[in-house]
Amino acid sequence: MADENIERVHCLIIGSGPAGYTAAIYAARANLxxxxxxxxxxxGQLTITTEVENYPGYPDGVxxxxxxxxxxxxxxxxxxxxxxGIATKADFSGHPHKVWIDDEKLIEAEAVIISTGxxxxxxxxxxxxxxxxxxxxxxxxxxxxxxxxxxVAIVGAGDTAAEEALYLSKLCTNVHxxxxxxEMRASxxxxxxxxxxxxxxxHFNTVTEEILGEKTVNAVRIxxxxxxxxxxxxxxxxxxxxxxxxxxxxxxxxxxxxxxGYISTIPGTSRTSVEGVFAAGDxxxxxxxxxxxxxxxxxxxxxxxxxxxxxxxL
Length: 314
Description:
- This protein is an alpha/beta fold.
- The protein has helices spanning 18-29, 64-77, 126-130, 140-143, 159-169, 188-195, 291-312, and strands at residues 6-14, 34-37, 51-52, 62-63, 81-83, 87-91, 97-101, 105-114, 118-120, 136-137, 151-155, 174-178, 200-203, 206-212, 219-224, 230-233, 237-240, 244-246, 277-279.
- Helices cover 24% and strands 27% of the residues.
- Strand 15 (219-224) and strand 16 form a beta hairpin.
- Helix 1 (18-29) runs parallel beside helix 2 (64-77), helix 1 (18-29) packs parallel to helix 7 (291-312) and helix 5 packs parallel to helix 6.
């Protein structure tokens, strides 16, 4: 590899959602001269959402993409070096830590903050993609408010789907829960809560055939797996709760993770199993997954990195 393709940096941030940009703001203010690579989706998951109403400081709400532009501008104003590029390989076996960008450029970093996020799993229907943000959502806590007093459907059978169905039941007139098998995967206590909630109707042995609507969702077509019977349910919202996939593949075998690929951090910190490597946002958080908690953990990661570098005299 040619020398011009190697760059040494003090603090490298991988990913650019609320966690990455907040880490960049704090790291820049601490004079860590952070370099941030935005990744495959600059701005993260919020760039594919529409209205965000639950982030503090925006009393009238804000469009997701606009909010991420604000975050980026603030990080740049503080002096963060923000670049296009995707981290494609990492080597944390020695020091400095090594991360390759776009399979070409090698970045050697004293400290690395991973904020690569997680991606919602989708059903893969064209109508789901077309109506994403127009009645289709992968986050009931984020978007349930917009469907107050309306009828909605949610697909999924695990604890997250059960939790989100219960959350929606407090806001919506009726919640149709679409479950592929003849039983739910959720814990017994969560199943009982769902089944004992009057306005949640569980459709077992059922799959989603199509989400209907021109500009916004107005119904969902479902199919009974056993009988093959098709039916339509009029709904205003369709929530997908079949899980998230943390964007952590390039770090596998190098950092401790749970069985689903979320990076493990030392409780109360952003520190990973490798000294000088920190993780923030949804790549290490499978519980809350909110913009505000991601931003908070980005702050933690920058402060942890600053203390680490200071203690090392770097």
